[in-house]
Amino acid sequence: MDGFVAAASTADVPPGERVVVQVGRTWIVLFNVDGVYYAIEDRCTHDDGPLSDGRVIGCCLIECPRHGAQFDLRDGSVKAPPALVPVPVFETRVDDGMVYIAKAKKR
Ligand code: FES
To answer: Residue 106 burial (CB < 10 Å; 0-12/13-18/19+)?
Structure first.
């Protein structure tokens, strides 16, 4: 699978769970939200807080635990301040019980 790296087995990330993995020099948090995998950089664009410690809201939002910024897990867009800049997101794929994360961010 060109351009992707194996991040975790699906068994390691059941629905409602998350894992942090390093891809190259970037720390990425991989979420399983009701069977859908999302991968975003584990660093809030407001003040570098770890998004992996944040609360998932509904299907698609992650709330930074430090000051409450919210990002859309699907595209990284900001949904609540104080962050102003989107968080990088990475494409995910599932194959043969493994979750893969793209090496390059979507944007
Ligand atoms: S570090 Fe995330 S909202 Fe401030």
So the answer is: middle
How far apart (Å, rounded) are the C-alpha atoms in residues 21 and 82?
26
Q: Is the CB of 105 under 6 A from ligand 1?
A: no
**Ligand 1 atom with the shortest distance to the CA of 44:** 2
CATH 3.30.420.40 for the 4-102 domain, yes or no: no
Please state the rounded mean pLDDT for residues 72-94. 97
| pLDDT computed for residue 1 by the predictor | 77
- Would you say the CB of residue 33 lies under 6 angstroms from ligand 1? no
Whether the pTM exceeds 0.70: the reply is yes
C-alpha of residue 67 to centroid of ligand 1, in Å: 5
Please determine, for residue 75, whether its predicted confidence score (pLDDT) is greater than 90: yes
Across 33-48, average pLDDT:
98
One-letter amino acid at 77 equals S
Domain ranges of the chain: 4-102
**Ligand 1 pocket: which of 67, 70, 87 to mutate (most atoms <8 Å of CB)?**
67
